[in-house]
Specification:
The complex is a heterodimer of chains A (316) and B (335). Helices cover 69% and strands 0% of the residues of chain A. Chain A is an all-alpha fold and 316 residues long. Chain B has helices spanning 2-18, 45-60, 75-87, 101-110, 137-150, 165-181, 198-210, 223-232, 264-275, 308-323, and strands at residues 30-35, 65-70, 92-95, 115-119, 129-134, 155-160, 186-191, 215-218, 238-241, 255-261, 282-286, 293-297. The chains are: A mainly alpha (316), B alpha/beta (335). The A-B interface holds A 1, 9, 12-13, 16-17, 114, 118, 122-126, 129, 131, 217, 221-224, 226-229, 231, 233, 262-263, 266-267, 269-272, 277-278, 281-282 and B 39, 41-44, 47, 72, 157, 163, 186, 188-194, 196-200, 202-204, 206-208, 210-211, 213, 221, 224-225, 228, 231-232, 249-251.
């Protein structure tokens, strides 16, 4: 194996591998910036993956067939937003423990998507999904063309979401409100910002993005659905937010690092490098843990009120 | 004299089981329960056992075989299901996976009159526990011959779940098959580390394809993810499967052939042995020679790809495996 070709292949594959966790982590960043961590991200991705698959599967022979994928994406985002709303109701209005509620949401999403799939579809089956769309001209650029511009349309959307998220968080009044309610909700409340409403909005947006991430898995990666399709990627997304220090650019770096490690370990096996595969498959996860442990100062950069329910009637 | 009589009786019972009594309808109604970790329609591991029990039930009649199953049973949850089945008087409880080893061993002591079975395992367990082992190197060998003869790039990919159990045997048999058919071809063996992560299997398949592989194979339910990746690849990329259900999927245009387990032989043996008073303590093999495997070519595949020469080579190997003329030393293969 030529080393240059090997690196090229690893990078080409790392980009599509990173999309689902990148989109979900960018959404989770909105949640956490607003002061709420949503461990139910994985469950929302399951529901997004299910509906992303279900719509094109259901309309594949009807008049709506050409729009099946778009409908799937829209419904995945809608169900994600609905789950975000539910989570907001439980954690913001009823002030339940965010960790416990998140685990509950994860189990609800995982169980409900599997149950609905069994009821409406049954066994394993596939959909045509969304095919790759190399960008004319750009995809012909040596090296970079294959790495960056020969992917699924959703991959381009995912990478555009990085600057979009940054702009929304740091350059708009709404972004300022989100950061304010996550950092010092009482001060924000005093300034007339409606803390609960802002948290609701952030959770719904985060949920919609998690739903989209799930739909990417079922429509673009696997082009099928199964109960275990998401396989814990939602939890990786939550970890990436810490890893990326609550910055969209940092999250992008984390997602790419994780997926490059993933792509590298798979390639390493395929190249026949003598290394126990049990350790190889652990590599991306170990890498995330090591970097998280080394970045111990990261917590200082995060939203200071993360995980704490806000009650304006309570005095501290 | 007494020993001779015992030997004669034992031989009679054994021959009876082999020569047809195993196929006869059970004298009394048999209640069979199946416990699986995935679902019975996963087009893979769990479905093959479920389909086998249904086939046996259909053959002997619903009046003679009562069947019930529990899906999505992690080993920690499966205990309560097994206990309930045993308490309700189920005669045979099949826990379909080696991960149920400890559970079955524990339950067998609590319910000594119930026959338990699990696999894949070659363990000889308690007196009321059967194990079953597919000799998957045989199916791997046939698929390997096809892959070796079809490949143009001389690079073949294997998308395995873990290097253990029947997957390890399949992988090594596949390597032997490729080597026999095309010694210059190389097989890139890689594992996802998971039986059910379809996305990761797809990612691994994409990695194999990017590396130049033009024929892929894979085992366990996760293999469907790899097959989806093959189906989405440019023309000229093919798949040899470890489940004949894949021949009925839309992706079958890329499937050259597929093998699958025929657990009906195991289920029949469990019923017959229990009827003969043997509740366990044996390991039952699945081989071509005892009808434990099915193998099918894709009848719709272009004859220019799946040539008569390939079919002939595979049929000969299958016949040799069935007759016992060909023995595969899969344990000698080091990855």
């Amino acid at each position: 194996m030529n080393m240059g070709v090997g690196i090229y292949n690893v990078l080409c594959l790392a980009v599509p591998f990173s999309v689902a966790i990148l989109v979900a982590a960018l959404g989770e960043n909105f949640n956490q910036r607003a002061g709420v961590f949503n461990l139910g991200c994985d469950g929302i991705m399951c529901m997004g993956a299910f509906l992303g698959f279900m719509l094109p599967y259901s309309v594949k022979t009807g008049a709506l067939a050409p729009y099946g994928n778009l409908l799937g994406l829209a419904c995945a985002m809608a169900v994600g937003a609905a789950f975000g709303l539910l989570f907001a109701l439980v954690t913001v209005t009823f002030r339940a423990s965010q960790g416990i509620a998140g685990i509950g949401l994860q189990m609800l999403g995982w169980g409900l998507s599997g149950t609905l799939f069994r009821h409406f579809v049954g066994g394993v089956t596939g959909v045509e999904g969304i095919a790759s769309m190399p960008i004319p001209g750009l995809s012909k650029i040596p090296f970079l063309g294959g790495v960056l511009f020969s992917h699924n349309p959703l991959a381009y959307v995912a990478f555009l979401l990085v600057p979009a998220s940054w702009f929304l968080l740091y350059k708009t009044p709404w972004g300022l409100k989100v950061r304010a309610v996550g950092t010092h909700p009482r001060a924000a409340d005093t300034m007339g910002i409606r803390v609960d409403r802002t948290r609701y909005q952030a959770l719904m947006l985060g949920g919609a993005m998690a739903g989209l991430a799930g739909a990417y898995l079922s429509l673009c990666q696997a082009k099928m659905f199964s109960d275990d399709l998401v396989a814990g990627r939602g939890f990786i997304a939550v970890a990436l937010v810490y890893f990326g220090r609550w910055s969209p650019l940092g999250i992008l770096g984390g997602a790419l690092l994780f997926s490059i490690a993933q792509s590298f370990q798979l390639s390493m096996q395929v190249w026949g490098i003598k290394f126990p595969y049990e350790f190889a498959v652990m590599l991306p996860y170990v890498l995330v843990i090591v970097v998280l442990a080394l970045a111990r100062k990261a917590r200082q950069l995060g939203p200071t009120d993360l995980g704490k329910p806000y009650n304006r009637e309570m005095r501290f | 004299m007494k020993n001779s009589l015992q030997t004669a009786l034992t031989a009679t019972v054994f021959l009876g089981l082999l020569c047809g009594n195993a196929q006869a309808a059970p004298a009394a109604k048999v209640k069979i329960a199946l416990i699986v970790e995935s679902t019975v329609d996963d087009k893979g591991w769990c479905q093959s056992m479920h389909d086998a029990i249904l086939a046996v039930q259909k053959k002997h009649g619903v009046a003679n075989i009562e069947y019930s199953h529990s899906e999505k049973m992690k080993p920690v949850d499966a205990g309560s299901a097994a206990r309930q089945y045993a308490s309700k008087g189920f005669d045979i409880i099949i826990c379909h996976g080696a991960q149920y080893n400890n559970l079955v061993t524990e339950m067998s002591g609590v319910f000594p009159n119930t026959t338990f079975a699990y696999g894949t395992s070659a363990n000889i367990g308690p007196k009321n526990v059967f194990t079953y082992t597919p000799f998957s190197e045989e199916t791997g060998y046939l698929n390997g011959i096809i892959a070796g003869m079809v490949t143009k790039t001389n690079k073949i990919g294997n998308v395995g779940p873990v290097d253990g159990g029947d997957s390890a045997r399949y992988t090594r048999g596949f390597l032997l098959g490729v080597k026999a058919a095309n010694p210059s071809a190389s097989v890139r063996v890689a594992f996802t580390g998971s039986f059910g992560d379809f996305v990761k299997a797809g990612e691994l398949a994409q990695t194999q394809l990017k590396d130049g592989a033009d024929v892929l194979t894979g085992s366990a339910q996760q293999a469907i993810g790899a097959l989806r990746a093959v189906a989405a690849a440019p023309a000229g990329i093919y798949w040899v499967g470890q489940d004949t259900a894949q021949l009925g999927m839309p992706e079958a245009t890329r499937v050259l052939a597929a093998c699958s387990y025929n657990y009906a032989a195991v289920v029949e043996a469990l019923i017959a042995k229990r009827a003969a008073g043997v509740k366990g303590g044996e390991s039952l093999p699945l081989q071509f020679s005892n009808g434990g495997f099915r193998f099918e070519f894709n009848s719709k595949m272009d004859a220019k790809v799946l040539t008569p020469a390939i079919k002939k080579a595979v049929e000969k190997a299958k016949a040799d495996l069935t007759s016992g003329k060909l023995k595969l030393d899969w344990k000698a293969i080091k990855l």
